[in-house]
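Researcher: Go.
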Amino acid sequence: MADTASGATIATTIERFLNDAMVSTRGTRKTYRTALNALMEYVQDKHELDPAQALVTDLTVERLLAWATWLIDRRALQRRTMQTYLAALTSYVKFLHVNNLIDLPSNQAVRLTEGQRQIRRAQRPPQSVPHPPTAEQIEKILKAVRERVIEPGNERLELARLRNIAIVETLRSTGLRVAELCNLRRKQLRQDKSAWVIGKGGKEREVFFDNTAWRAIQTYVEARRMLDGASGRPQGELPVFARHDKRASNKVLKITTTSVERLFVEIMAAAGLSDAGITPHSLRHYFATKVYQATHDLGVTQTILGHSSPVTTRIYAKLEDGALRAAHEAAFGRSIRIESQE
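Model: Structure:
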């Protein structure tokens, strides 16, 4: 990085940066000061440069990236703290460049950005293995939602009960994300018990319903026929899963992700599973695990879940440790004895 402002030192430019409007809040300023104090400590400790005397151009891209690595080794920073420190570095370098305190060629900027990305990637925590609900827990959930007591003759609550059954059955049998379920419209349902949905990143994929889930949806939609007809909207444009709270009145509004999450809290309490940590997304893990166990094909599992990367899907293979052990025992026997030959 070439000097474009003679006499600009590391310490003075850091102070100017912290007092600049780019660092708008007191909390941000305090955090950035801590980060950049660590930068000054680094150049003094590792490169014997006095920040009050050393020019800002002494902060080469190599040294800035080495500072980030030094932080990990020396300070053992938590991942979130490290992200904040890197954000401070990015803002500081941008300030220097915008104010003509340094000249940062595009190739150097790319090196700095890519280096920080690699550091973030290296600090990424190991992917945790999900704990999908057991088949027994799924049965308890379905039993609780089917047997929910409502006021006799309360049509609104009966519609909500039928909808809730259809929601749980759909999440169980399709692996839909909650947002995908909430956005599902009638016209997306096909007679072959499938639907085309738009997932993350605008990616379209086909999902499939089992007979139980499909019947639950048809029962719910049929019970809602009068409400849908009175809406004055084309049937295909109506949401599959609608709100049935008092505020929705007679409008056919799609259910929200927050409502589905609240619904699961109620269902888990009724099922005696409040401490099991089961959320709507847990049923996606259940679905994914069932698909992988049935196929042992990560490609199929990735496609049916709508994952962009096989890395995301590979986590379900980690659940197969027991199956791998069983396969090894089938091939080699439960125990292998090596007898000494004398």
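Model: The chain has 15 helices and five strands.
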